Amino acid sequence: MSAADFGHAAFLSDIPLEEAQARWHAALDAGGVHNADVERIALDDALERVTAEPVFARLSSPHYHACAMDGIAVAAAATRGATETAPVVLRLDRDAFVVDTGDPLPPLTDAVIMVEDLEPRGEGRVAIRAPVAPWTHVRPIGEDIVATEAIVPKRRRLGPADLAAIASGGVVDVQVVRLPRVAIVTTGDELVDPAVIRPERGAILDSNSVLLAAAVRRYGGIPVRYPRIPDDPARLDAVIGEAIAACDAIIVNAGSSAGRSDFTARVFERRGDVLVHGVAIRPGHPLVLALAHESAGRRVPLLGIPGYPVSAAICAELFVAPLIERLAQRDPPDPATFEVTLTRKVFSPLGEDEFIRVVAARVGGRIVAVPLRRGAGVITSLSRANAIVTISRFTEGVHPGTTLPARALRGVGPIERTLLAVGSHDVAIDLLAGALADRGIELVSANVGSVAGLVALRSGSTHVAGTHILDAASGTYNDVAVRRYLPQTAVALIAFAQRAQGLIVAPGNPLGLRSLADVAARRARYVNRQRDAGTRMLLDALLARDGLSPDAIEGYERLEFTHLAVAALVADGSADCGLGIFAAARALGCDFIPLATEPYELAVLAASLDDPRIAALIAAMRDPALRAAIDALGGYDAACAGDVRVVELQPAAAV
Amino acid sequence: MSAADFGHAAFLSDIPLEEAQARWHAALDAGGVHNADVERIALDDALERVTAEPVFARLSSPHYHACAMDGIAVAAAATRGATETAPVVLRLDRDAFVVDTGDPLPPLTDAVIMVEDLEPRGEGRVAIRAPVAPWTHVRPIGEDIVATEAIVPKRRRLGPADLAAIASGGVVDVQVVRLPRVAIVTTGDELVDPAVIRPERGAILDSNSVLLAAAVRRYGGIPVRYPRIPDDPARLDAVIGEAIAACDAIIVNAGSSAGRSDFTARVFERRGDVLVHGVAIRPGHPLVLALAHESAGRRVPLLGIPGYPVSAAICAELFVAPLIERLAQRDPPDPATFEVTLTRKVFSPLGEDEFIRVVAARVGGRIVAVPLRRGAGVITSLSRANAIVTISRFTEGVHPGTTLPARALRGVGPIERTLLAVGSHDVAIDLLAGALADRGIELVSANVGSVAGLVALRSGSTHVAGTHILDAASGTYNDVAVRRYLPQTAVALIAFAQRAQGLIVAPGNPLGLRSLADVAARRARYVNRQRDAGTRMLLDALLARDGLSPDAIEGYERLEFTHLAVAALVADGSADCGLGIFAAARALGCDFIPLATEPYELAVLAASLDDPRIAALIAAMRDPALRAAIDALGGYDAACAGDVRVVELQPAAAV
Description:
Two copies of one chain form a homodimer. The first copy, chain A, is an alpha+beta fold. Chain A contains 17 helices and 40 strands. In chain A, helix 3 runs parallel beside helix 6 (309-328) and helix 4 packs across helix 5. The longest helix of chain A has 20 residues, at 309-328. The two termini of chain A are 66 Å apart. Chains A and B meet through strand 11, helix 2, strand 15, helix 3 and helix 6 of A and strand 11, helix 2, strand 15, helix 3 and helix 6 of B.
């Protein structure tokens, strides 16, 4: 194996998104790619299916002259001359017949008089005080549907009212467009089933098959999953050959890049015409679009989707969705777009359209969007996001405060009921989120550290800021920092828990660490937290107290963003220790050396205490069941959860 | 049977919609109505399901330190000192290891250098010209997901990215909210299956079960259809008892009004608390909402839905949808609202909120809405509509030109691709609609007659006006009328077909009618068309030509709106004849006595000939396959279809 094996990157092109889309759709048009197959199915199975032809009525509706009111049916001529002062009296079952809505009009009658307009006169007689015109309150044959006419047109996606109209026309089955079958072919020596108990290092859990199958189903197709195959162009070629015969489109994942084991584009070339290899989007760049040679009278679209999960999801949305909509003859869903204000500066390369996953929430009068992590491998950036913002390839990025259009991923409903928590990370937040979900609120947290959380609160970019900032001088937590970062704003602190902070170490504490002095002395490999994290500040305060320099700590510059991430590195053996909370150590099976106890609090604007979301937050925190669940994590005392105190305003002169 | 049986209408109340909704939801809250049941299902079945608890990661992702680029893995320390001018040379398989994206980081390495930054030096060596920091291009353990953390929260409706994230965490099944089971109990002596070949008079095709089952499914529940039962309160009560034990909610249809056979409210009263009986909405008034007494620890909601199909659909949307969303813990779909301009004056009673079904289409710069027929029994008013406009109970109606918010029934996509044809009715329009559907255009026609169509064209309320107006003086069609109604506008007439008009008579022509003189002489029962219909004008012209007075025609005042409706009445025997086109006579099995041949043309603004929808219309009409299909209807000559002529402008002085 040599460096010469590396040489394929140059094959990837960089064409803009719109050009790739135009080239692809033109090729699909020219290749006559559509789904001409139809099937006849029962009406009960036809919800959301698309008609392949107009549905013609077998019967008229009504199929007889129907009474449209409860009352009496009469011959209109018999009512002539009735007035307020000279009522006409009718004899039941002789010249007036009691009818209910829907009854057939009795013979020799041609109108219905409503029950409300009748005066019972006893002895089977009723009086009326106005004449009635022929065909009054009668639904004549075919009023709604005339036999032979089209009830619903071709290409209608059938909804409940369509199905009811069709049934009213006496039709109980319909000709619909067959659902397109989309092959999902997954390649990769390293892929294993997500159910594997203990995957080996290097084994990749095959989550993309799950993603793509679900995406195909959501867009209106039937996913056809082929068994995973290794990185072997001959095997891939053979499976594609099978799939061309059996399916309407083929997705290959992954191998779409230009690396040593990326055969997709080359196999597509053998099987058809490659239209696009490489699109200037991020994530999603190494995409392959091709059209198979004609076989059995059709040309099957081939899509090579990149392997990074976010890339795969973005490419599915941009290219698989419209393809399936074409094959299924469905309209795309209405785009759910809205304006968001970005809370952070975002750099983005010129020349690439970038899809930034964000958490959007209504804070104050505007909808703010917090960008999530941008790696193409970070699938949780998509599952945590509720919207996507596109940064155009013509700009190098956007400033905080910029307003941009965003696309909702799950509708705007979830955005309106999102409670944003930007700040310090705490493991117990997951439990709080569950309690809030029961109250219809989606708590989303962005882990940026305590200080960044307070800054976000100041700039109106979050509802809540989780914080635990030690003021070394006074030995108190949070109040000093709140006054520093929000000097003239009324802020409330909601107590969440007292929690233990300490050294997270491997099981059995093999290095025998008892203090930070031990960490320094034994040159233990430490993992630190990012600047502005409360835990990082705590470390610095403890080092200062113990007379240690940061330089004495090996790994002081190695940064993670959460307690759990620190514990994961320790659990794996790639670090020896890190400062964090007991719950994180316990979750990952590590040992824990307590060094401090601190309050973790949620800062909110005092003015927002009336907001129903904040009120629900406080109520949830005061729920004994939640407190008990938090205590059960270990290292927490949640007896104070939900206590609210307002931080005293600094005198204006002191600012 | 006597008039005393009529006395229940007074039980119906008239409470406003918001009050009914508030009362209902408060009762559901107080009754603790929710769906606490959960089930564990495989990830592959979990798309669109709602999580009942957070999903916690079993494994971290990545679960090992993963290379994030194709390239070489190195110990960062070994790259120290490399510069542009003093490259460092690394030996493959000794201090540099070829890796692909996703590979585990080899032992004793802590960084990856991209293939693009390498210079092959032969003999298994590569050079680099910059040092690399530790952990560069490495995805550390847990970068995406840390084992034990919550991957998705409780109450998440699972999309493809959620499923992929869950799989990435090594989880392959999830705890979800059980789908709510909704009983559909249909009552009515007169109901028959829509498949019945020849229903008796008075038999009503049970389309409401189809409607309600589909609605329940669309809203996220499982419909449980009970066998239809007759109008018998004891039977209804027994079935409700069964359904309370088996289902989460019960819909009874119909019997919700206050007529002779409307038992629903009384049966509900026995089974629980009736909260609402009668809501001030139209259609949909006779609605019953109740909550069953507690049984097995729960109170099951009971809904009595009115029998008229549009009423049933509206009530389902207003009351069944939110109930199922509550039970399924789903968000409602985002409302698709937009502004429309009404084309017609609409009267609506004070005190009732009325839901007007409309066809909306973009004409010129605005979206116009054509109100459809308003009867609660006209299910096609809902299947033809693409939007609904609400007329508030505080107004008596709205003027044409009024702008109102509308709600899209199938998204805004179909509205943007709707081509509106307002004017004269022609049976062949169904065929044209099918041809346009293949071109992605939804042709919707409103049958208002030729003159009303030209007026709509003038007011910018339609794209197309089907027209056949005879100018008796000149014996020509359409041009004179176009100049009368659009005197100063450039109008184009697109030929559709020459068609035969004549008398539609019963099979075998039992009255031996040969002419309008015969109709008058034999006092045949005639059905006329509405004022301003071209066919009505033709009748008047033929009567004048033959020296007959309208008074001589029995039924001159009996009006229908379409050729097919006229033919249906003749076919049924409730009329002896009517003027209409051959295709309608043939469709209903009637005989036809030709009296005239006339051009049927589509008028459009000349300026709109460039509109892609109009261009597609003309292209579709010129398609020989469509022409042949129209000819095959009989009575048509479509050789001219798609020929365009522009009507000469009247000199301004002459206006």
